[in-house]
Amino acid sequence: MTSTSSSAWARVQDSPWFWLLPAGLFLLVFYTWPLLDVVRLSFTNASLVAPDYDYTFDSYRRVLRDPSTLRTLKVTFLFAGGSVILKLVLGMALALAIDAGVKRGLHGIVLVRTSVLAAWVIPGVVVGVLWKILLSTSSHGLLNYWIQAAFGNSVGFLTDPDIALSTAILANVWRGVAFTMILLYAGLQRIPPELYEAARVDGAGAIARFRFVTLPTLAPVIFIALVLITIGGINTFDLIMALTEGGPARATEVVGLRVYQQVFQFMNLGRGAALAVLLLAVNLLMTLIYLRLLRINRKTD
Fold first, then answer.
1. CB–CB of 133/140 below 8 Å?
2. SS3 assignment, position 146
3. In contact, 262 and 271? CB cutoff 8 Å
4. What residues form DSSP beta bridges with 44?
5. Which of 23, 24, 82, 259 sits 20 to 30 Å CA-CA off 146?
6. pLDDT, tens digit, for every residue of 83-139?
7. What confidence tier does 6 reach under pLDDT thresholds 50, 70, 90?
8. Which of 254, 264, 279 lies closest to 128, judged by CA?
């Protein structure tokens, strides 16, 4: 009996599902159940100040008919799109520069990598506060202090509706470009040196090698980076909350911040849940688009 039990236990331990069970339970309790509960609450008129609620489509009707919802989505896409483009371009430039520096044995590469990564590990709230201190128009704004000393006027980086969103994008890029750099740098290490040698023999210059060797080989990594940083940009909340709180004149109000306002400022749990489901739908749509593009790219190759 003991031998049979030991044999059965050994078979259980050999099963991959046994080792995946703890992670599966963690995801079920802390991700799947809260997600399903948010979807359920989105079909209610629940409030944080009232214990009773009814099941209704009123939250979705109000969210979809509210003119500010479209404006918030527009701001979210502009913020995410600007962040994605700059993160990809700068991340690629940094990855190529560090890769070239390592191959040539240049000094200071470790310092450069550490400096870039330092911004990535800082929480978004802290990044928002740091940039707010740096760009504030008050007497303690470091950058505006020097601008005012040089030109006599300060710049409303955080108070001018025309440039506040651009400022938030730059802060987000500064924070997250390291993640893109890591992915692309890892992808560069997988490119066989023989491909570059063959391109050189054929007379290809640096730009041609980048276009016909580096980019096609890195395409899967670039698509993965696109998906991840797009989702990250669309879901950004903490940095904007600390930096501008959605202002000025709601110029930086993204969907994530709107969800927070509906739930914790207006106590409207149902409407906040409906906005959260809308945000989830946008995330899924963008992911499906990128995956479709990735399949098309693979078929073309």
1. yes
2. helix
3. yes
4. 55
5. 82
6. 999 999 999 999 999 988 888 877 777 777 787 788 888 889 999 999 999 998 776
7. low
8. 254
As beta bridge partners, residue 47 has: 50
Amino acid occupying residue 85: I
Compute how many other C-beta atoms are within 10 angstroms of the C-beta atom of residue 156. Answer: 17
Other beta carbons within 10 angstroms of residue 176's beta carbon come to: 25
Q: State the helix-helix crossing angle for 269-300 and 58-65, rounded to 10 degrees.
A: 70
Count CA within 13 A, CB hemisphere, residue 115: 7
Of 239, 237, 284, 231, nearest in space to 259 by CA: 237
**CATH node for 29-300:** 1.10.3720.10
Amino acid at 15: S
| DSSP codes, 178-228 | HHHHHHHHHHHHTS-HHHHHHHHHTT--HHHHIIIIIHHHHHHHHHHHHHH
Return the closest-CA partner of residue 240 out of 301, 185, 172, 287: 172
Q: How far is CA 216 from CA 182, 187, 211, in A?
A: 18, 11, 7
Map tokens 């520096």 to a residue.
101
pLDDT, one tens digit per residue, over 262-289 is 999 999 999 999 999 999 999 999 888 8
CB hemisphere CA count around 194 (13 angstroms)? 1
**Of 241, 252, 126, 232, which is closest to residue 177 (Cα–Cα)?**
232
- Ordered by start, the domain boundaries in the chain are 29-300
